[in-house]
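Protein folding task:
====================
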Amino acid sequence: MAKPTSQFVCQSCGAVYTKWAGRCDACGEWNSLTEESRSDTPKALGGGAKGGRKLELVGLSGTSKAPPRMPTGISELDRVTGGGLVPGSALLVGGDPGIGKSTLLLQAAAALADTGLSIAYISGEEAVDQVRLRAARLGLTDSNVGLASATNFRDIASTLDDPQGPQVVIIDSIQTMYMDTLDSAPGSVSQVRACSHELIRLAKTRGFALFLVGHVTKEGSIAGPRVMEHMVDTVLYFEGERGHQFRILRAVKNRFGATDEIGVFEMTQGGLVEVTNPSALFLAERRGNVSGSCVFAGMEGSRPVLVEIQALVAASGLGTPRRAVVGWDSGRLGMVLAVLEARCGLALAGNDVYLNVAGGLRIGEPAADLAVAAALMSSATGTPVPADLAVFGEIGLSGEVRPVAQADVRLKEAAKLGFAEALAPPRRKSRATKPTKKAPDAAGPREAEAARAADSLTVREIGHLQDLVALFPTENLSRKDDAASE
């Protein structure tokens, strides 16, 4: 019996089926299966190690040189990439349509070209004239950037496979590229996987830095096979709300630098402008003496960021109160409300609760629990949180406030912006260790400066959530069963 010559591949997760189905069993997507030709796969090698080359195994100890860097000229982009581009590396940039991916990479290409590097910007979505119009709007027409509009991988590979080829290549976007040796349509899993693999192999061989722009799905993840994120060296997400001018470039994977690092930009008519002090920008429009507002001292990678958290607690006219969250985890909001009711005796379950992180930033660390609880208490009681107060701390299910990492750096950032007081969890008790002669000099200048900044603040340690609740008048929020027992 002849084997089938085609297969059905899910365009969301890459799962393969022998026949068409309306729903993918692997990821649950509907109408995502597309028929593709079955590629011939090499059979397993038999006979042991015939034809193979013996590998040289080395030990873990040893030294290696740090990879060379090519600074992009955009300090926020250099921060996210770990100090600049590494020759032969592949970077995948994803983001919502219209968020500014092409604008950022065109500005980076112009900045790199101004340093004397040869740049190739290959667009598969726009014509050369459209890219030139954007460059004219951004004032980049004088930069020596090589432009091309192409989607055929064979033509692109012939251009880049040259010893005197470009040093930085930008492909916008990988979903538009196709190989004529595959029968599937551009953007399919097979095309994206094959084109990505060959471009990365070419970048490693010729030593140029490769930028790949990727589309995202409605869930926010990069479209195409998940293996594409494993093939590249760095994965960057360009985030932001359409209603805000702020844009966040976030590194979720980086083989040459720290992960969870962010770069902050502001979208203007002249393009993306770097924001060197994002805390001041996020708090620029904040109004003091307003209930339901609290400043959270957070960390994004190695950068401290102060951001305003807004909460609104209102009486609900529905049988099931609403819970609306923007910029935070809705599950953690439910947990904080449950702890306030179960451990502190507050009646908040019958109210509508709305929570918003101002500025379009998305917070993912649990250290925001205490700031969220303070904003909720402020809105529920109508008592404003002091304008010069910064809050951070993680809340446990028993109501305890747990320590968080890099507390001194958070306090230093708050002191630098003029905050006079902070609510923080208790400090971790250091383990008793045998003192050494170099113990007094163990802390570096950065840690010493952070400690001095922390001393300029009035730090109030909160060990339990009830200590925070005691700062607000909660007579009207006590549960009926607690009032009856009293």
Observations:
- The first strand starts at residue 6 and ends at 10.
- The radius of gyration is 27 Å.
- The mean pLDDT is 85.
